[in-house]
Design brief:
Chain lengths: ~475, ~70
């Protein structure tokens, strides 16, 4: 894992690459923060050097201590694969194919690439393919729109509202509600007639006085239902619906100005994202490794991250201009299919190398075990059959691995005290898992809400505290 | 006292670039939303200036020093 291209491939998985434009198109300021942290945090982590007396995570003769980071990273890699294969399933549904086909194709390709040794050094080539396949359609869209990126941004930011174009597939043929991005209900700002070309069951919460009442309609083929302002459509059902042209896209910002402004928000949420990505990057890119960056290498990593962020910004702005219906899901994934697959394969190879480099036997057997990787890809593919939010899974993987390995990587104990790193990692992981379990139960609140939303805000300090106390006692 | 290495300088600068975004968002009177040459101030900083500066900082300060000749590998 000394190759800088593998650093990029591990960090820039398809889910991470698409998270920035998705966030940018939802709310500009939040997307900028996500993109900026995704760009700068890996550089910070690579720049933080372990002290002279530091022991790498898992170093020492304590077998339990050396096994802990391996098992933790193995689980994290499994969840990252799950997130990316689930994204492939979403893309398949978006393209009108069965979900399992996208999952099977991606998982099989990923496993073959990691299992067949001649293909293991293909990460740089795959990254190059992903780059070309991602940039080419962007240039095409920019050319078709006829506006430079800044003029396009200005046009988006001055839109009075985001409305369905008449040629949108949501208007012409209709699309399945199962492809809607996220699980939040779609709130309507105006009267909107929805038609089910093939019939099906539509669930909505309608305003009854001041209360929302849940209603379910069984629609015959071609039958319509009308929702009023304030009504909420529950996504996730596999019913195909046609929306009306020139009506506001539910879930989109109220206007371009509302999209562009930075609303007052809890700074703790941004801190939570920063901490999650920081400890996650420490675990994924640095734990147990010494990466030496030449000036060319530093330039390659920084340039790659910068390019990815610039691409995300341009893609989000042009996509909003051309297809405001993207708020319902998908950033024109058909164009990005090749780029996404190439990025996934590069990530798979790099993640395998990453895990192999941490092998306690020193031989990298974990990275070469086809049975283990078949199990990982197979398990991830099976789990992906159920729709999940890929970005939430990625944050879970980064946060969990980060709380377990991040503090000891960024604040390493002295040589010969690998057990302290393991203890701190276990404490951080348990705290993270406890808060993440609370998150599943849907707890809210102001301060607590941010901590529950980003469990690494509690887990990482807990692990760091154990390290600090342990070092103090040793001193 | 440990000497300040070039890497430490780079890491501090990268932290400052991140902190700048949070500070810009916290400025009163929606200063971050002011438009300059087609983009908002926040977008100029978070989407253009900070990432470009971050890349330059990484190239200038994050690379390892060349190995000393007596200990050449």
């Amino acid at each position: 894992m000394t190759s800088v291209s593998r650093v990029l491939a591990v960090w820039l998985t398809p889910v991470a690459l698409l998270a920035a434009p998705a966030a940018l198109s939802t709310r500009a300021a939040d997307g900028l923060w996500l993109g900026l942290t995704l760009t700068l945090v890996p550089l910070i982590v690579l720049g933080l050097q372990a002290g002279r007396s530091a022991a790498p995570v898992g170093a020492g003769r304590d077998e339990r201590a050396s096994l802990f980071p391996v098992v933790t990273l193995l689980l994290a890699v499994g969840v990252l694969l799950w997130a990316n294969i689930a994204l492939a399933g979403d893309v398949a549904v978006w393209l009108g194919a069965p979900r399992w086909q996208g999952i099977a194709l991606t998982a099989l390709a990923g496993w073959l690439l990691t299992a067949w040794s001649p293909l293991r050094r293909t990460a740089p080539l795959l990254l190059a393919i992903a780059l070309v396949a991602a940039v080419a359609p962007l240039l095409q869209v920019g050319w078709a729109v006829g506006l430079g990126p800044i003029a396009a941004w200005d046009r988006v930011a001055t839109q009075a509202a985001f409305r369905f174009p008449p040629a949108s597939p949501w208007v012409t043929t209709g699309r399945s509600l199962a492809t809607v991005h996220g699980r939040a209900p779609l709130v309507f700002d105006e009267v909107h007639r929805l038609t089910a070309p093939a019939g099906g069951v539509v669930r909505a919460r309608t305003l009854d006085g001041n209360r929302l009442a849940e209603i379910e309609w069984g629609l015959a083929p071609g039958q319509s239902v009308t929702l009023r302002a304030g009504d909420e459509l529950v996504p996730g059902a596999p019913v195909r619906l046609r929306f009306e042209a020139d009506k506001r896209v539910p879930g989109a910002p109220a206007s371009g100005m509302a999209w562009a402004e930075d609303p007052p928000r809890r700074w703790l949420d941004r801190l939570g994202l920063l901490v999650t990505l920081l400890v996650g990057a420490a675990a994924l890119l640095r734990a147990g490794l010494t990466i030496r960056l030449s000036r060319d290498g530093a330039g390659f990593v920084a340039g790659g991250l910068l390019l990815a962020f610039v691409w995300a910004q341009a893609w989000a702005v042009y996509a909003m201009l051309r297809s405001p219906d993207l708020f319902l899901g998908g950033v024109a994934p058909a164009f990005l299919l090749v780029a996404g697959l190439a990025a996934f394969l590069a990530s798979s190879v790099a993640l395998r190398e990453r895990l192999g480099a941490l092998d306690p036997t020193g031989g990298g057997e974990i990275g070469r075990d086809p049975g283990l990787w078949a199990g990982l890809f197979g398990g991830a593919a099976l789990a992906s059959l159920w729709p999940v939010d890929p970005w939430a899974l990625t944050l879970l993987a980064l946060g969990g691995a980060g709380c377990a390995l991040g503090p000891a990587t960024l604040y390493p104990p002295s040589a010969g005290r690998a057990g302290l790193a393991t203890t701190a990692g276990l404490v951080g992981l348990v705290v993270f898992a406890t808060v993440a379990a609370v998150q599943l139960r849907g707890a809210g609140g102001a301060l607590l809400g941010s901590v529950v939303g980003y469990p690494a805000l509690a887990g990482a300090p807990a692990g760091a505290l154990v390290l600090w106390l342990g070092r103090g006692r040793a001193g | 006292m440990r000497p300040v290495s070039p890497r430490s300088t780079g890491v501090v600068l990268l932290w400052l670039l991140l902190a700048g975004f949070l500070l810009l968002g916290a400025l009163p009177n929606e200063t971050a939303s002011i438009r300059l040459a087609g983009l908002s101030v926040l977008w100029w900083y978070g989407g253009v200036l900070a990432p470009v500066m971050g890349a330059l900082v990484a190239i200038r300060w994050l690379a390892d020093p060349l190995p000393a000749p007596p200990r050449g590998e």
